[in-house]
Amino acid sequence: PMGWDAFGLPAENAAIERGVHPRDWTYDNIATMRRQLKRMGLSLNWDREIASCHPGYYVHQQSIFLDFLEKDLAYRKEFWVNWDPKDGTVLANEQVIDGKGWRSGAVVERRRLSQWFFRITRYADELLDALESMERWPEKVRTMQENWIGRSEGARVRFPIVGRDGEALEVFTTRPDTLFGASFCALAPNHPLSEELARNDPALQAFVAECQRIGTSEAAIEAAEKTGYRTAVEVEHPFVEGMTLPVYVANFVLMEYGSGAIFGCPAHDQRDLEFARKYDLPVLPVVAPLVEGEAQPIEIGGEAYLRKDSGAVVVNSDFLNGLEVPAAIRAAIDRLESEGTGTGTIQYRLRDWLISRQRYWGCPIPTIHCDACGIVPVPRDQLPVMLPEDVTFDAPGNPLDRHPTWKHVDCPQCGRPARRDTDTMDTFVDSSWYFARYCSPRHEGAPADKAATDYWLPVDQYIGGVEHAILHLLYSRFYVRAMSDTGSLNGLEEPFAGLYTQGMVCHETYRDRAGNWLYPDQVVRDGETARLADSGEPVTIGRSESMSKSKRNTVDP
Q1: CA 501, 506, 511 angle in degrees (round to 5)?
Q2: In order of start, what are the domains of the chain with their CATH numbers?
Q3: Alpha carbon distances (Å) from 417 to 195, 379, 400
Q4: H or E element: which one contains 11?
Q5: What is the pLDDT of residues 356-409, one digit of tens each?
Q6: β-strand 356-357 against 184-187: which pairing, if any?
Q7: Cα 369 to the chain's mean position, in Å?
Q8: SS3 state at 132
Q9: Using CA atoms in the order 46, 47, 51, 56, what is the torsion angle rounded to 10 degrees?
């Protein structure tokens, strides 16, 4: 079969630039590619053709969304996002370059918006454990998914806040064995305590704003210099009576991981060590090499001592002294629990999947917002919720949000005036279940004919790029489990039995003086330099990378 993953921002932007409707641009391109594929003589079953932008496809996607909503697999909450004030939309971390929107060049703002999520974390253990039996998947991809899910065993530790009776700062750590080496605690810039303190501290407000400009991705934070702002708050050490630790707001702490707060043990964490050296904080080694049953002398210079297996022993740590690290971790957790200052816990790096997009060309989210009733699902007999065709793109932001009539509806429950949800779904949703639709592409009563999916699925051999390892491939694994739990599939465990990751088709990237991406046919190469074919203006040559519609480094067959 052949299908077209046809929604998305690249198609919308391309249509805007050419002054055409995204629907027309998309369907014209589909017709061209279909014609090219047929000329190539490929053996494709065109009777099973599907397109994610066709209402006959996304009506079922909306039905699946409602299934997820009923089972609490879809939910809405406020969340910190990257907001491009010029384009009027949320940006992925990867779309924030040096604190600016990749397309508009506007300084990105951190905003707290209500967004839709899929509860992929409910399946974290299942997704992780199943990797062991997926022998026909490349080891590299399985390792990437294992690391992305990121199961960590550790402890939640409560540090009482000095001067605030009954209040404590809770941190998550995988190394409770190093608590005696703590010299500071640090908060994420958007931690509730950071926000509280910033309200009356202009200098802290300025620091938080600076943190927001470096982006929110782990890569951006890792590359940035580790900086902090010392607050007036101090916390009590949970094990050492009378010892207090300063509390910083730090640019390297993520609210999305753990509790959004850490304790810093500089001797045994490189990031903490860099921070401690910058702010002249104590560096006390509490773990040392173990050789022939004896702890060896240890000094910390420019590198933290990171060993944490049975070849390392705890020192300078009261009741933990002499224990190998694994045993010390368990002993520290036992003491925290017995004293009521912490608990052992399991933490995941994986976060629920944010699916809201503030753009037009995507699958509408089938919910209605009523001031009296709250969030109300669109009745199934009113699906699909279709995109309006009479939209304009003459202003930044989401055309659905400013449409004069489309978003205004009556509440299905109380009949009062209400509003459609104007967000659309992330296009990775479209591609997370298409293989099930291939099995019965004209089936109308449900997303798939379960007799057909029982026969055809899982996919015997899947071929796709390794760049999808922690996105599309992981989302599809979640989707078959969620669709099974909501009754659309009969207990399908995995979508793809075998996976082959071929090499990526690459091409150089080109940009003009304004930073706009250029197509190869717009560029003339002159040895090591390049220029615009129509004007002769110089062109910046980028590295050769995977062909991308957004970066325009594609070649029309």
Answers
A1: 140
A2: 3-128+354-494 (3.40.50.620), 152-348 (3.90.740.10), 506-546 (no CATH)
A3: 35, 16, 17
A4: helix 9-18
A5: 999 999 999 999 999 999 999 999 999 999 999 999 988 877 899 999 999 999
A6: unpaired
A7: 26
A8: helix
A9: 170
